[in-house]
Amino acid sequence: MVPRSARSPTALLEAPLRRERDAGPMQRQLYERLRHAILDGSLAPGSRLPGSRALAETLAISRNTVSATYEHLAAEGYVQPDRQGTRVTALSAPDLRGRTAAPTGTPVTARRLAAFPPNASRPDSDAALRPGVPALSHFPLTAWRRALDRALRAAGPAALGYGDPLGEAPLRAAIARHLSVARGVRCAPRQIVVTEGAQEALTLCVRLLTNPGDTGWVEDPGYGGAKAAMRAGDLRIVPLRVDAEGLQARERDWQQHPPRLVYTSPSHQYPGGAVLSIARRLELIARARAHGAWIVEDDYDSEFRHAGEPIGAMQGLVEDAPVLYVGTFSKTMFPSLRLGFLVLPEALLPGVQAPLEEMLRGGHRGEQLAMADFIESGQFSRHLGRMRRLYRGRQQALRLALQQHLKVPHRIEGGHCGLHLTVRLPAEFDDRRIAAEALRHRIAPSPLSGFALQPLAGDNGLVLGYGNTSAELFEPLVRRLSQIARASARA
Description:
The protein is an alpha/beta fold. It has helices at 9-14, 26-39, 52-59, 63-76, 108-113, 141-155, 169-182, 198-209, 224-232, 251-256, 278-291, 349-359, 365-376, 379-405, 431-439, 474-490, and strands spanning 48-49, 79-82, 85-88, 192-195, 215-220, 236-243, 246-247, 261-264, 294-298, 323-328, 340-343, 411-413, 420-424, 446-447, 461-465. It is elongated.
């Protein structure tokens, strides 16, 4: 960079370029010099640049280098060639010398999302007891590679282009068949939208069905991703408490805060593990119909039921239920696959088909086609069966370790489904402090209080994932957590 004191036009143009090996190509140096000089006003609008031959001789570089630099500057609009030579363009930008841009403020969406307390740290996927991480070391990679190979061979180069914005037809058909058998969902392939995970599906629900200022109900404590999607859509979020029968929607809630969207995880409430009772499911559907509301059913971890028969989806309880069903392969397959799905009610299709095709772009075609093959070949069902047995054993082992080695008062909740247990602790054991200290030992429980928008005294505890942690590690891990918890109470 030429010193500011040397920035008269003549000195600027005659100063030699650097010849050191790390200085970069001559053309790039000259381009940057002239561009900066034009932007900061050292080369005034309308001033003429030297001819390419003259400047090349002055700087001891080739004429082709100067000509190429002028052409580059002309292509970007910094200079304008004419019959008399090359002149500096009069730019509409203000003089930038010595000035800094005025701050524009935080974007509105970012301000809304900033209302959520940030996590102290985001643990690695392999940190012990982290909720929501499946047993990645047990995933059948060989079978998955074969499915990918078959899909790409069959599709050929066409798989490299854009696909159907709503998802590949074979995968939508395979998902529809699987959901009908495994979850009791009533749907046709045309009702399915393939998404990049459950979070995009939740975001689509908000974008398609609400206007800023509408009311959205969420479970409290509950899944943060649903709150984030509603917050980003500028919805008025009303947290409803959860008890042993799931979401509690009382008469006064319908009268005082009628919702446009109701988010619930009825088959396995996250993080408490409650199952929404049949009476509450039917009541919620009936009241949603009466109030013109839509229910977003997040079927979280429902594939991994450890006790009794699988809990069917709420979407399939009654015909034409006002329910949008959200699912993902992040837990049943692996998180980086980034494939989820949204099942739309038939009544919504005419109004959302065109917007969805504009909002989405068909991608991950190879993975989508491979996932369809994985389902149709039976590999997916076999994998789920193996994982159910594995997770059932790990859940029982973690429960036993907690009972024997967690030497503080506690109550274990959940465990009939999914990949985690919730351990409630007395208020004197600060769950956030325990989680922060545990992370230093590469143990990653989530503090229960962090799931609540309006936390009560009882919303204190730890959410412990057992999907990614071997059963033989539970005893030493729980002993360490017990030590950390007891120390937190003394602090």
